[in-house]
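Supplementary material to the annual report.
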Amino acid sequence: MSKARVVLALGDDVSTDQIYPGRYMATVLPTETPQFAFADHAAFNSLLKSGGVPAGSVIVAGKNFGCGSSREQAVSALKGHELVIVAKSFARIFLQNAINLGLRLVEVPDVAAAEGDDLAIGLTEVTDLTTGRRFALRPLPAARQAIMDAGGLIPYTRKRLVGRGTAA
Amino acid sequence: MGMTVVQKVLARATGRRMVAVGDVVEPAVDLAMSHENAALVINQFLEIYKGTGLEPKPWDPSKIAIIFDHRVPAESPKTATNQKKVREFVAAQGITKFHDIRGDEGGICHQVLPENGYVRPGYVVVGTDSHTTSHGALGAFAFGIGATEMASVWALGCAMNVEVPGTIKVEVTGALPDFVTPKDLILQLVGRLGAGGATFHVLEFHGGTIRAMPTSGRLTLCNMSVEAGATCGIVPADEETLRYLREEAGVEDEVEPMVPEPDAPYERIVQLDASKLEPQVACPHTVDNVRPVTSVAGTKVHQVVIGSCTNGRLDDIAIAARLLKGRKVARGTRMIVFPASGRIYQQALDAGYVGDLMRAGAVVMNSGCGPCLGVHQGALGDGEVALSTTNRNFKGRMGNPASEVYLCSPAVAAASAVTGVITDPREGGVR
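Predicted assembly:
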């Protein structure tokens, strides 16, 4: 169980263009992308850059979060701030990129929470401690569990590669 | 129970007799495509090998394609340096399917791959670009992945933890009316399914309209399948696919079509009557906010854009030239055109289309992605409206969150360039 504050509440279909605008795509390194997270959302971007958002803070959103581009910067930028994304559903490529890079996603089909609410995120449900409402959580695809357990795709692939090397 | 096309592709690519929806498989990859983001792929690829004592070598350089298209020619020293690093890697690893910034061989990845015969029916194609779905037009299972996942493909040669997706069958019948195009069909479908309506699913296209459609139109359909959240779009290969590969892509060896089995399991069937279709427009700021052109006709447009991996092919440019020949782009409206590849640009020059468009007042740019995603040229001013044949109209997509983007076919775009307002191309005055 982790407890965290909602720092941003958004609607459906939040696109990767909103999360990480295309004009910053020449910046690729995960160490450099976090400065452009939600760059067109000036107030939130400033808050992130000022260090005013503690690690583990939550963005709440509606359906299809992360729709659009495959740009991994949209994930590394949020991961850099150690944000947690709680959404009704996620777009496929964003979901897979998040698992690959270790950004924490929580899928909660009926979630309703406002900025400033405190959430308790458990294994099977999310409780909004401010409103007292409880929401069932949908587990992430089991197919990706091994990658999560390995701590991301890079260590997972490294292990596979080394295993293959010794087998040969 | 039979198998859909994608199930058959995945069965072949995993050496199994059959795969079922929901199975988790690791298909061998036939083609792994990246563009400028190869710079990040290389970074992650080298990261994988750190501390292993193994030499970082891709599993099969002949199956890697790298095409520069997102920022061409480079718009900044940063991009130019990234492109330089990728060039060095390409040379060191012997990657042959590399398309640099050139007028003859260059272009947008989703046109360069098909026109060079790199994609075949039954292939597993992955690309670090969400519009990799385009290549389903040739009967391949083609889907977008992130850069780290691509680094993993380069290392191991397979896509990992792929859940065999369920399939939605899209059956389209009837002839498309004049000035109604495959773009209108896919906009209508995305509007009907919703932006996340096909997430983790395949859109498999069938019906007489699809059989009669050239590969260029099928590329438009599959390209935008991802706008409904689909993992991929796919058109089972047929005579047209073989014709395209032979005549337009110069493929000489035997090509084996792969088609679904008659009792393939479809989760849903969506039927569309093309003969009743009107020109469609996706209104700001989501691609599924689709309305008939008649309901937004008269909206002032500051910039008309024709091009991209969605609608920058020869027939798209031809219809624009036909509507603009001998006319003028309205004062107060700018028009930019960017063909999908250098080869298409040449063909459009030879056919006289480029001259027709320029004499009408359009600016014809080199092939590339820039204006579509707001990275390079064609930026919009605060409060301005663009009408574009590209694939996304998200807030800020074309570089300015204070602007608006409407999506449409090349016919609607060209007719509107003449009037300066969103215009139904079927109406008199523009013929």
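Residues 170 and 205 of chain B are 5 Å apart (CA to CA).
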